[in-house]
């Protein structure tokens, strides 16, 4: 299968890429910083020489760059699975965060997924099958301490996922919203949090891979995962 993953250079996205490549699938990857993406693609090619692994960098918070990325994608592949993972967490309080914070978080965490999906959907619709994973958050489900605009953008991403699932349910395309609690990635490095206290990126990748393996008549609608000891 052909797997498109955004934000694939590190963290959860990189773990998902590894998981699919380990099962022999072909990867079409993007993330913002060119050098980090090149490093990730090189590492994956060395580990999985039998898979096609291609990458192009793009800032998906900019609509024009999303279209460049999706055009590149469609030149190389017909996607079976799309993982909308690119995004970042700007902590803050709504009353205190600087002007522009909501726009920045919506652009990176919501519109990146919205435009990527709209561009790649016609190819999936033509095939009559596909699976879209949107990496939301537990901050999509409830108010989150210092969540501010991040939490607003992740609530919206969950709303996008639910509406998309309804629209696509009779077209053979599945939509899964993934809502992880804390996962040890770059965002947590230097925070002083013990990596063993929170989840591993591989935990999220394992669940996504499992959800992608069901019969066409079954969909995992939501994946909610938390550290065993609960939220921080
Ligand atoms: P990470 O290690 O910082 O990786 C984020 C990836 O997304 C990187 O490849 C990054 O590329 C890319 N990215 C960010 N902004 C982008 C943009 N504007 N355009 C293109 N690529 C962009 O973060 P992570 O913890 O794995 O997070 C991945 C996703 O999981 C995010 O959506 C995050 O909100 C969500 N999530 C994380 C946690 C957690 O505790 N870690 C919990 C719940 C949900 P660059 O580095 O080049 O910018």
Strand order, largest beta sheet: 3-2-1-4-5-6-9
Beta content:
15-25%
Largest sheet data: 7 strands, parallel
In total, the number of strands is 9
Overall SS class: alpha/beta
Uncertain parts = none
Can you write the helix and strand succession as a string?
EHEHEHEHEHEEEHE
The global form is globular
Terminal CA distance: 37 Å
Q: Give the names of the bound compounds.
A: NADP nicotinamide-adenine-dinucleotide phosphate
Q: How many H/I helical runs?
A: 6
Determine the mean pLDDT: 98
* CA-atom Rg in angstroms: 17 Å
Overview of the molecule:
By secondary structure, this protein is of the alpha/beta class. The protein is built from six helices and nine strands, in the order E-H-E-H-E-H-E-H-E-H-E-E-E-H-E. The chain has helices at residues 11-22, 34-47, 63-76, 101-127, 148-168, 201-211; strands at 2-6, 26-31, 53-57, 81-84, 130-135, 173-180, 183-184, 199-200, 222-225. The strands form two sheets. Strands 3-2-1-4-5-6-9 form a seven-stranded parallel beta sheet, sandwiched between helices. It has a two-stranded parallel sheet with strand order 7-8. Strand 5 (130-135), helix 5 (148-168) and strand 6 (173-180) form a beta-alpha-beta unit. The site of NADP nicotinamide-adenine-dinucleotide phosphate (NAP) has 27 residues, from helix 1.
